[in-house]
Write a structure and sequence with these properties.
heterotrimer, A alpha/beta, B mainly alpha, C mainly alpha, A: D-Maltodextrin-Binding Protein, domain 2, D-Maltodextrin-Binding Protein, domain 2, six-stranded mixed β-sheet, three-stranded antiparallel β-sheet, about 45% helix, globular, B: mainly alpha, MetI-like fold
């Protein structure tokens, strides 16, 4: 008798059908209704009500994650918008996804509604025409933002043109253990590198293209050639200068390499690894883009109480973090509401108080209460105030030179070992 | 025996830091004993994100196990009970996914998953995880079918048993150990899978290994260790239990579960 | 439906078709797509520029050569260590009470590699448990002096993880293979006056060779292909081949995609060649010891 031979197949039929239906669910692009014009905010709010916004964001900062869950999501919920944070470890993955969808011809119903972004990733999207543009000035809370400020108008040299809205300010600083380094040692990059020579193995930076590692390299570049010079824009003559200044930079970095952690033979893979090294006492100094978050680490005991911050004489490097909305996003109205909520002065205050994140809004435009609350936020002795940090703020390089430096660093420094 | 003691020490010493770090509040180098303990890590494993990921992991693991089992059963029967032309080719094809890196294969597939709307869906992740699981299911069940006596089936049918009854009452019982270990093995492969889920789930299908990988990369060792405990406990309990039920031989196959 | 007996090939084909569809669509499809895309086919752009450019770029990059050596080193050393240690463990364990030890081996077997990598990091990193112990007994004055076992150039951390995780697997396979039959044969040999070593060489090891070789091929294939272990315990340069492939794949410059596919294709070819070479070697050795 052979019918039993068919049994497994008979079982399989429904199972395969289930697989296919599983596969199909959530698959096909949902037909997207025409999206509200950002200038008509009531229409935006009406359309956003009931939407669920997939916000792709770097998820490595637990404190920030908590603020988003406890401050941002409830405010959106009040407006009928559900926040679905998609926590990724590399923003490039989100850009990649939108690029893939665009090339697959998915012009609507895209899976990415909003991205926390800046720099090269934004520039990549501009080149590929990925973003919805001309909306950021229409956000009601944009009145708190100084839209004329250079750091809001340009993102690593790329004109913003309303394609993204600012929501945090990153400022670089040097974090160090004052039990090991004296003020002289941190007053300048030369001082730091001299100290490293005297104390080998106790300073390092993450391997670019890590976001912070790239900044550490640029800080040394600014010190080497006295500021960013013409490399802040991608105009013609700057390319000639690029080769000249980077030659000096690689020479200096390679000279310093033997005095770094592991003799410069390798570099940590991420800023988190660097912070672990500092917490473990393996290194005594590192550069950061998040100087405000250091207070928390000192408080919870993972950093020594003698931790301090400094800005070397070459200045601090500042940039703005933005939210961009892909042009094919399914829930654009909801994403606009998210961008607006992020600029709310109270959210900005919550970000500052909880995670030490510096505001992207111009505090002078906010209510006296908000200003007072910002001023009253307790400042740990370990961290610098905003004024101290940004006294000598330097702009970022144009993103084309940024990616150039990141790629060339791999060849000229990492692979030289 | 001294050697046996050494063995125990090696296995335990490797897992010990995980258990300790899961409850560490502060442990600066070079202290041998943590300065402070905390239940933060344990509370974290009960957070909504982690529980949601746990649910996704269980859902995907169960779907993969059931599907791979259902697909592997007939293939195992063909391999175990029939001699046919091209049997070696089929066996080779079924083994190839075990030898060729799944990462390389999935990189090639990814654009098509995007195009057909399978990327970023639980269904898509389940489908791609069939690739590393179906071969094991087919081979494992094939080995079990080799020992099966088909006369019993024939007899049952002659005595008037329906096909379903024959399958349930006659065919499957002697295969029970292999069936259980196949389900378990495929579940465990799915449970530990990281890179295929990352590539085709695109960060939106969040399973426990994805959370764990992110936590290991973060500067929070306590969170990473606590999640690690959560990821490691179910397989260890399942395997030890299964070994008790099945006897050592079939449990050995569970060593194939890796990710 | 009528109970008419179908010809056997048809029945076999029906039984096999679901599994072959899965393997055919996902595996054969994926491999051939990786190959085509490495040669310049860009399905998203809908255009094809047949070129070997991606291979030229990849093979010309010193990082690729370094990755190949690293991957081969990691794979071969950890497979070798796990095989030797696994068989040794099995030989030791079978003479003692098996119960608790077997449970221990099984537990180790079930640990996902991701957790294994985390454990190795917590244990072997310069600020890990081993270094702290070294400090406590005065061997390690500070973390910088502790030998680099993770993020190291040689790949020791990765090797340690694979070896730790795969030794129990080999041991369990070997234990399962040491059935009563093996014991009986050994007893006979002993009665006939064969010494301990002689019994091991002439009887036990040859009987173990086949199952252990099969199991170690699986270890080899896994060690060559795993992404997360070398990503977490290795360094950015040189990176193991799977890490390199994914680095290229995640580049936002989509024109780099063919390079990622070229690395992936090379990885597949290297894996297959290593497995084939290994199997040939093992079958020769088995034949010689017989």
């Amino acid at each position: 008798m052979t019918r039993s031979e068919r049994r497994p197949l008979a079982v399989l039929g429904p199972v395969l059908a289930l697989a296919l239906s599983l596969a199909a669910c959530g698959g096909g692009p949902a037909p997207s209704a025409p999206t509200a014009d950002s200038a008509d905010w009531d229409a935006v709010l009406a359309e956003a009500d009931g939407q669920s916004v997939r916000w792709y964001l770097y998820g490595g900062d637990d404190v920030l994650n908590t603020v988003i869950d406890e401050e941002v999501a409830p405010r959106l919920a009040e407006l009928g918008v559900t926040l679905e944070p998609v926590r990724i470890d590399d923003t490039a993955d989100a850009v990649n996804k939108v690029l893939g969808e665009q090339q697959a011809g998915r012009t609507s119903g895209g899976s990415v509604d909003a991205i926390w972004i800046n720099g090269e990733n934004f520039a990549t999207g501009v080149q590929a025409d990925l973003w919805r543009c001309g909306w950021s000035q229409d956000l009601p809370n944009a009145r708190y933002v100084d839209l004329e400020a250079p750091e809001v108008q340009r993102d690593f040299g790329t004109p913003v043109e309303g394609c993204e809205s600012a929501w945090q300010q990153a400022s670089s600083a040097l974090v160090y253990d004052s039990a090991d380094l004296r003020p002289d040692d941190v007053a300048s990059v030369s001082g730091l590198l001299d100290w490293a020579r005297a104390n080998p193995g106790r300073f390092t930076y993450p391997a670019p293209p890590d976001f912070t590692g790239s900044m550490a390299v640029r800080t040394i570049l600014y010190d080497t050639v006295d500021g960013p010079g013409s490399l802040v824009s991608d105009a013609g003559e700057a390319s000639d200068q690029y080769a000249a200044v980077t030659r000096l930079l690689w020479a200096r970095l390679n000279a310093a390499a033997p005095t770094l952690w592991r003799g410069g033979e390798t570099y940590p893979q991420s800023q988190e690894d660097v912070e672990k090294l500092y917490a473990d006492g393996e290194i005594s100094a590192y550069f950061t883009y998040g100087p405000g978050a250091v207070a928390q680490k000192v408080e919870d005991g993972s950093y020594p109480g003698s931790t301090r911050e400094a800005v070397p004489s070459s200045g601090n490097i500042s940039n703005t973090s933005f939210v961009a909305i892909p042009a094919n996003a399914e829930h654009q109205a909801g994403a606009l509401v998210l961008a607006d909520v992020l600029q709310d002065p109270e959210v900005q205050l919550a970000l500052y108080e909880a995670a030490g994140i510096y505001p992207a809004i111009d505090l002078a435009r906010t209510s006296p209460e908000i200003q007072a609350a910002f001023a009253a936020a307790p400042l740990s002795p370990s961290v610098l105030s905003i004024e101290e940090l940004t006294r000598n703020a330097q702009p970022e390089l144009a993103s084309v030179f940024l990616s150039g430096i990141e790629q060339d660093w791999t060849r000229e420094v990492l692979q030289q070992q | 025996m001294r050697l046996r003691l050494l063995l125990v020490v090696v296995v335990v010493a490797l897992l010990a830091p995980l258990l300790v770090w899961a409850v560490v509040g502060s442990w600066r180098y070079p202290d041998l004993v943590p300065a402070r303990f905390t239940d933060r890590g344990l509370r974290l494993t009960l957070g909504t994100d982690v529980l949601a990921a746990l649910g996704t992991s269980v859902l995907i693991g169960t779907c993969v196990a059931v599907l791979a089992w259902a697909i592997g059963l007939p293939a195992g029967r063909a391999l175990g009970l029939h001699r046919f032309r091209g049997r070696r080719l089929v066996a080779f094809l079924l083994l190839a996914p075990v030898v060729v890196p799944g990462l390389a294969v999935t990189l090639g597939l990814q654009v098509f998953f995007v195009r057909y709307g399978l990327a970023d869906t639980v269904g898509g992740v389940v489908l791609v995880q069939l690739m590393p699981t179906v071969p094991y299911a087919a081979v494992l069940l094939g080995a079990a079918f080799t020992d099966l006596d088909t006369d019993d089936e024939r007899q049952a049918r002659t005595l008037g048993a329906g096909p379903v009854r024959t399958l349930v009452a006659v065919t499957l019982p002697p295969l029970r150990p292999a069936l259980v270990s196949t389900l378990l093995l495929t579940f465990l492969i799915s449970w530990s899978e990281y890179v295929l889920t990352l590539l085709l789930g695109g960060g939106t299908v969040t399973t426990l290994p994805l959370l764990l990988f992110a936590a290991i990369g973060s500067s929070d060792r306590t969170a990473a260790a606590a999640l690690g405990v959560l990821v490691v406990l179910p397989p260890v309990v399942l395997v030890v239990l299964a070994a008790r039920l099945l006897g050592g031989r079939d449990a050995t196959w569970l060593g194939l579960a890796r990710g | 439906m009528t109970g008419r007996r179908l010809p056997e090939p048809v029945r076999v084909a029906r039984l096999l078709s679901p599994a072959l569809v899965v393997v055919g669509v996902f595996f054969v499809g994926g491999v051939s797509q990786a190959l085509l895309q490495s040669l310049g086919r860009q399905p998203l752009l809908g255009e094809t520029n047949w070129l070997l450019g991606a291979y030229r770029t990849v093979l010309g990059d010193p990082a690729f050569g370094a990755s190949v050596w690293l991957s081969l080193r990691i794979t071969l050393i950890s497979t070798g260590l796990a095989t030797v240690l696994g068989v040794a463990v099995a030989l030791v364990v079978r003479r003692v009470a098996r119960g608790p030890i077997t449970a221990l081996l099984q537990s180790a077997l079930a640990v996902p590699h991701l957790v294994g990598a985390l454990c190795i990091g917590l244990l072997l990193s310069p600020s890990g448990l081993l270094s702290r112990l070294g400090h406590a007994v005065g061997l390690v004055p500070d973390a910088a002096v502790f030998p680099a076992l993770t993020d190291d150039a040689f790949g020791w951390g990765v090797i340690a993880e694979y070896t730790w995780k795969e030794t129990p697997f080999i041991a369990m396979v070997a234990l399962a293979a040491m059935s009563r039959q093996v014991g009986d044969l050994e007893d006979v040999a002993r009665v006939l006056g064969a010494g301990r070593l002689q019994r091991l060489r002439r009887i036990t090891l040859p009987l173990l060779a086949r199952p252990v070789a099969a199991a170690s091929v699986l270890v080899l294939a896994f060690a060559a292909a795993s992404y997360e272990v070398p990503r977490l315990l290795g360094r950015p340069f040189p990176a193991a081949l799977p890490v390199l492939a994914l680095q290229r794949f995640r580049d936002t410059d989509l024109t780099v995609r063919p390079e990622a596919m070229a690395v992936a294709t090379c990885l597949s070819v290297i894996s297959l060649l290593t497995v084939a070479a290994y199997l040939t070697l093992v079958s020769r050795l088995v034949r010689r010891t017989r």
